[in-house]
Amino acid sequence: MARRRLIADTRRLGCAQKGLTLIELLIVMVIMAAAAGVVILNAPPAPSAAKDAAMKFAYRLNTVYDDAIVTGAVFRLEISTQAYRFQRLRDGDWSAVYAADASNDWRGVSLSVELDEAAARNVINDETGQDRLGEDTVTTIDFDPLGDNPGFSTIFQSPRGAWAVDAGADGRVQVRRY
Fold first, then answer.
1. pLDDT by residue (tens digit) across 29-85?
2. What is the 3 state secondary structure string of the chain?
3. Distance separating alpha carbons of residues 123 and 77, to the nearest angstrom
4. How confident is the model over 116-138, as a mean pLDDT?
5. For residues 28, 30, 33 and 38, what is the CA-based torsion angle, rounded to 10 degrees?
6. In this structure, is the dihedral angle defined by the CA atoms of residues 115, 117, 118 and 121, taken in order, positive or negative?
7. Are 101 and 133 in contact, with CB atoms under 8 Å apart?
């Protein structure tokens, strides 16, 4: 008899409930939504296209410096406002090593070059005004593995910010906010 009374008391108090009520489900969903909101708000922002393009350019420039030293080959960088191209001198002819342009590799990013005073002696501007890469003017910088390499900065600009890749005459390459 005591056992029947205990079962009746637990049913009356709700202890014998199987499953969740609608209110409990809604509370769990609100807690999960709040947690998801916190995670999304604390996630790091996506890098700007200019930073991404500058990092890739710096990596490729480091590779060219290293290849020039290891192989003893002369390399060249052709750069315009919308594209750049690395070339290598082989048997008296320039052959493309890598090329990138705004239409394929990055969108909404423009390029510009700032030269050190000593670098101006080592730079050739296309006299025809026709860009071999598809834009107005091309600046060409040659990298000699044994000689004095130019110091220059390449600026990548987008609406979300500008980033510069500094190439020193000593071969150091660094990326910084411009």
1. 999 999 999 988 888 877 778 888 899 999 998 888 888 888 888 888 888 888 889
2. CHHHHHHHHHHHHCCCCCCCCHHHHHHHHHHHHHHHHHHHHHCCCCCCHHHHHHHHHHHHHHHHHHHHHHHCCCEEEEECCCEEEEEEEECCEEEEEEEEECCCCCCCCEEEEEECCHHHHHEEECCCCCCCCCCCCCEEEEECCCCCCCCEEEEEEECCEEEEEEECCCCCEEEEEC
3. 10
4. 51
5. -110
6. positive
7. yes
What pLDDT was estimated at residue 65? Answer: 85
Q: Is residue 145 exposed (0-12), middle (13-18) or buried (19+ Cβ within 10 Å)?
A: middle
Which bin fits 103, alpha (ψ -120 to 50), beta or left (φ > 0)? Answer: alpha
Residues paired with residue 87 on neighbouring β-strands, in sequence order: 76, 96
CA distance 48 to 54: 10
**CB half-sphere exposure, 124, CA atoms < 13 A:** 11
Angle at 143 between CA 147 and CA 67, to 5 degrees: 100
Distance CA(152)–CA(58), nearest Å, equals 12
- CA distance to 45, 78, 101, 117, per residue, from 85 (Å): 30, 5, 9, 23
CA pair distance 148, 135, nearest whole angstrom: 28
